[in-house]
Amino acid sequence: MKNIRTEININAPIETVWSILMDFKNHPNWNPFIHITGTAEVGQQLENTIFLEGQKPQVFKPRVLAVEQEKMLRWEGNLLIKGIFDGEHYFQLEKINFNQTKLIHGENFKGILSNLLLKMIGEATENGFIKMNQALKAQCEMALVEV
Asked: Residue 111, by phi and psi: left (phi above 0), alpha (psi -120 to 50) or beta?
């Protein structure tokens, strides 16, 4: 299995980070990597549009695997059929202190084409995660200033 894992510390309470992360309808206003439509409930199907630099937007329809309030969101999607190129995407939040939160954002990949496809899109995908993390940090920290 291959994986991409990124982390960022956000100067905002975990409640603020979770609220902004889970407000899918507002992602197009700040999120340069992924726009999510649907409900974050276990078993529900989402519609995710991914924006990788240098490529056309791609739509995936993953199923939500886990949701833990202010802790974690996980979903799994695949390319065409299960076993070809499957990805388990996750967001984990860890409380550093009252006003700081660590975001761990990543994806575990498996399937018969995972090595080949990750060689092609792995760097762009990781860069997309990092850009999203930075945008989420800015959005959360700006929300505190506006209050």
From this structure: left
Q: Which CATH number is 2-146 given? A: 3.30.530.20
Burial class from Cβ neighbours inside 10 Å (0-12, 13-18, 19+) for residue 52 reads middle
pTM over 0.90: yes
Cα(24)–Cα(3) distance, integer angstroms: 24
Question: How confident is the model over 95-117, as pLDDT tens digits?
Answer: 999 999 999 999 999 999 888 88
What's the full length of the chain, in residues?
Answer: 147
pLDDT score, position 1: 55
Question: How many Å apart are CA 61 and CA 44, to the nearest integer?
Answer: 10
Contact present, 135 and 32 (Cβ < 8 Å): yes
